[in-house]
């Protein structure tokens, strides 16, 4: 009997040790939620591509502490309900240690309660300030806050002596967050919002709103949305002969917008991460080297330009890599180390997180760009 018990004990210990060894030597699973298809695919596709590219490169160099990363990606199609379902699947079935994405503010807000309840680090790739303001324990982001984008535009307007504006924002999570920031920060820069109007994500004509703006005292128009709506607005502005300067948000900071708007994109100004103008940045720019490397790498992999949005996913994976290297691969260790991230030079900017700041960037993460001859140029 004693021999049987001894043998059984040895077998159990051996099994537990084997399971422990497998767990500590198997792949580290990272979940990803991106809008690879659907209306926000111009965000999700480069995000998915960039995340896969950097994970493959990390694994080719031996992984993290000898362990490979496994990227589990689900396509949300830009749908908040699908994002919640996929987040639960990643946590409960796939057993991921962290999640990157989703691509949009609305989806991110929808899955925040899941991440908080399940105690899983989430690094959103969306821009809405409310994703991390107020701070949530388990939630971080890589996309520059829309409040910072608003500041960049308002500083430019002040320099140009423009103090009366019309805002036209999309009625979704990104648009409502931008609208809040545009209104909340206006007085600080001596700006008066004389027209405050919205449009629907699926609207295909905004001439009614623009006709109203044309008859107002507005000296400039600020449109806040993601494709395709802003391209429609740009075309409508040209069709109506509206001569006011047109500003867009960082939500259209990719060549896809120029393709959609065509000739109507000429002269439009918007805040953007540096990656789309990496080739014309001064040599003294701290990000220039890594940005050029990212653009070249993406071009080699996908025969397309690496952009602002793909950069959000690249940053998210690299931030996780740093956190795992410093503290291990449990969700709590990753969360704690993310919060201690200091001066990480990413694609979106120089990240420094803290207990009171899970967005990690300043307005210097943005530059103002102008579209000239269907390409980007820096606004001096």
From TrEMBL:
Domain of life: Bacteria
UniProt keyword annotation of RNA-binding present: no
Keyword terms, alphabetized: Amino-acid transport, Signal, Transport
Signal peptide: 1-23
GO annotation, biological process: amino acid transport
Residue ranges constituting the Leucine-binding protein domain according to the UniProt record: 27-372
InterPro entries registered for this protein in UniProt: BCAA_transport (IPR051010), Leu-bd (IPR028081), Leu_Ile_Val-bd (IPR000709), Peripla_BP_I (IPR028082)
Heme in keyword set: no
Pfam families with a match to the protein in the record: Peripla_BP_6
Gene3D superfamilies: 3.40.50.2300
Similarity field: Belongs to the leucine-binding protein family.
PANTHER family reported for this sequence: BLR7848 PROTEIN (PTHR30483:SF38), LEUCINE-SPECIFIC-BINDING PROTEIN (PTHR30483)
Protein name as catalogued: ABC transporter substrate-binding protein
Organism: Geoanaerobacter pelophilus
């Amino acid at each position: 009997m004693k021999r049987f018990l001894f043998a059984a004990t040895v077998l159990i210990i051996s099994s537990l040790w084997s399971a422990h060894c497998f767990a500590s030597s198997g792949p580290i699973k990272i979940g990803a939620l991106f809008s690879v298809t659907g209306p926000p695919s111009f965000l999700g596709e480069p995000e998915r591509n960039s995340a896969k590219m950097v994970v493959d490169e990390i694994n080719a160099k031996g992984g993290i502490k000898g362990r490979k990363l496994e990227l589990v990606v689900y396509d949300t199609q830009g749908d908040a309900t699908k994002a919640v379902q996929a987040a639960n699947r990643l946590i409960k079935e796939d057993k991921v240690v962290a999640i990157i994405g989703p691509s949009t503010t609305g989806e991110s807000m929808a899955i925040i309660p899941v991440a908080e309840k399940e105690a899983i680090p989430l690094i959103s790739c969306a821009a809405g300030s409310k994703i991390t303001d107020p701070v949530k324990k388990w939630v971080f982001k890589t996309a520059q806050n829309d409040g910072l984008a608003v500041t960049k535009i308002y500083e430019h307007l002040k320099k140009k002596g423009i103090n009366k504006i019309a805002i036209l924002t999309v009625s979704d999570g990104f648009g409502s967050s931008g609208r809040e920031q545009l209104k909340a920060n206006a007085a600080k820069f001596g700006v008066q919002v004389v027209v405050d109007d919205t449009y629907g994500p699926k609207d295909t004509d905004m001439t009614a709103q623009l006709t109203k703006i044309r008859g107002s005292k507005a000296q400039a128009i600020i449109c806040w949305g993601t494709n395709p709506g802003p391209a429609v607005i740009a075309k409508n502005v040209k069709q109506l002969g509206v001569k006011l300067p047109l500003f867009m948000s960082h939500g259209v900071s990719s060549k896809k917008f120029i393709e959609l708007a065509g000739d109507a994109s000429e002269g439009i100004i918007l805040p953007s991460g540096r990656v789309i103008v990496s080739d014309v940045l001064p040599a003294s720019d701290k990000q220039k080297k890594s940005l050029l490397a990212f653009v070249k790498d993406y071009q080699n992999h996908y025969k397309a330009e690496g952009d602002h949005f793909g950069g959000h996913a690249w940053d998210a994976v690299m931030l996780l890599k740093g956190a795992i290297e410093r503290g291990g691969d449990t969700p709590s260790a990753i969360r704690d180390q993310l919060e201690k991230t200091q001066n990480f030079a990413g694609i979106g900017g120089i990240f420094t997180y803290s207990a009171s700041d899970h967005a990690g960037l300043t307005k210097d993460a943005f530059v103002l760009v102008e579209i000239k001859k269907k390409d980007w140029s820096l606004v001096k």
